[in-house]
Amino acid sequence: MFYTALYHTGISPNIFNDVDGRFRRIDMEIGQLPEGENTYTVFSLWDTFRAFHPLLTITDPDLDNEFVKTLLRKYDEGGMLPKWELAANYTGTMIGYHAIPVIVDAYFKGIRNFDVEKAYEAMKVSSKFDTTKVYVHNRNILFKMSALAKKYNEELGFVPADKDNEAVAKALEYAYNDWCIAQMAKDLGKEEDYEVYMERAGRYAKYFDKETKFMRGVLSDGSWRTPFDPRASSHRKDDYCEGNAWQWTWFVPHDVDGLVGLMGGKEEFSVKLNQFFTMDSEITGEDTSNDISGFVGQYAHGNEPGHHITHMFNYVGQPWKTQELVDTVLQTLYFNDPNGLAGNEDCGAMSAWYILNAIGIYSFCPGDPQYSIGRPLFDEVIFNLKDGKNFRLKTINNSTENKYVQSVLLNGKALESPFISHENIIKGGDMEIVMGPEPNKNFGAR
Fold it and tell me: What is the DSSP string of 233-260?
């Protein structure tokens, strides 16, 4: 299963140039690459920014750098970073602007063999509504790429649910994407931009209803959309994207503490998070999304928007619950079978989640160069890094029953929290995780 997953992460994006370096550009012209370079196609970025690209930042940073350069090349050719590029086409498929976390995650992990200033410019342009800059074949795709939701977000400060479809999901993803831009702005000394994008990053709070404790559609007049059923799904016709309010309420990876505060503190947050994973899995509505699959309670592992949620307990001092949930997903929602995934592979996204979590780590918030520690499956995993270095993850007392982390040593020093930085990994060394049959509630408590 592990090596099949690795194979799946090696299929796309695909090389999109001939042996002589010629390739079809976004603007339909024929381009010529510098000798020794490749360009690529099939960028399922809504899916792959979450685990696939973070995996590559460890296992093949040079390839991830090539992907970033390709995204910037498509910006040069077509005027905007792609959302879901296919065969030199802006398809306009899916939501958000997730080329941005791919670029920012690479940048903060030291992968910078690209034009950083151009990348920053491309991110700002792609975060704004502008129909004049995008090369597309038809007007429908033009508005999918430019996205009216971005126009509302700029002009009104929120995305009204009666003006645009999937408004809540779009707004939450914009907030995260804008946080990524803010982090790069700050690192590049662009303080004014940093302030602007951090304000935008905090707009997720506008959709949180403190009475129901869910992210909800806000109408143009500022009222909540009613009636409201947090289990309800109407595919491509509601306030969410391939999910419901239960699944989307947790999409604030860049500010978990802020979401905890909105819910009333760690205790209330933890109660609701427990409920999410333990309640029944019924989805209501007449046209529910087929993408909602692979259930643990209302958690739907078969689609990507919730892939970070199992690790949220690490942020509220209950890492043993993250370990337990990751173990459940690894053991019950991946199979040695032709139908071995709980949902679409999505160009390696589903398998990349498996690879990282089976190793024992997960990239909770791409753009933040740290990994959340979960429950490793293997006694030993070695990353062969650049310059002849390696990073070894060794698991002591590992078994099916021993699914709880007792302690973690990084190069002989005890970790007090269930997180490890990218820098710790790429400089090489050893991490030793001791497992046991019962939770150690002292490890990672905060």
Answer: EETTSSSSSSS-HHHHTT--TT-HHHHH
Q: Give per-residue pLDDT as tens, 229-273.
A: 999 999 989 999 999 999 999 999 999 999 999 999 999 999 999
- Virtual torsion, Cα 60, 90, 4, 421, nearest 10 deg: 40
Q: Which two tokens stand for residue 428?
A: 């090489």
Q: Render pLDDT for 391-432 as a digit per residue (tens, 0 to 9).
A: 999 999 999 999 999 999 999 999 999 999 999 999 999 999
Predicted confidence (pLDDT) per residue in 49-85, tens digit: 999 999 999 999 999 999 999 999 999 999 999 999 9
**DSSP assignment of 211-237, as one string?**
TTTEE--B-TTSPBPSS--TTEEETTS
- Dump pLDDT digits (tens) for 155-195: 999 999 999 999 999 999 999 999 999 999 999 999 999 99
**Amino acid letter for position 295:** F
pTM for the full model? 0.97
How far, in Å, CA of 238 to CA of 143, rounded?
A: 19
| Other beta carbons within 10 Å of 153 | 25
- Quick check: helix, strand or coil at residue 281? coil
Q: Which of 231, 305, 314 is nearest to 275 (CA)?
A: 231
Secondary structure (H, E, C), 398-418: CCCCCCEEEEEEECCEECCCC
Q: What is the pLDDT of residue 141?
A: 83
Spatial separation of the C-alpha atoms in residues 186 and 200, rounded to whole Å: 15
CA 393 vs CA 308, 399, 420: distances in Å: 21, 15, 12
- Which are the contacts of 12, defined by CB distance < 8 A and separation ≥ 6? 42, 44, 347, 348
Give the closest residue to 71 by CA, choosing from 140, 150, 125, 138. Answer: 125
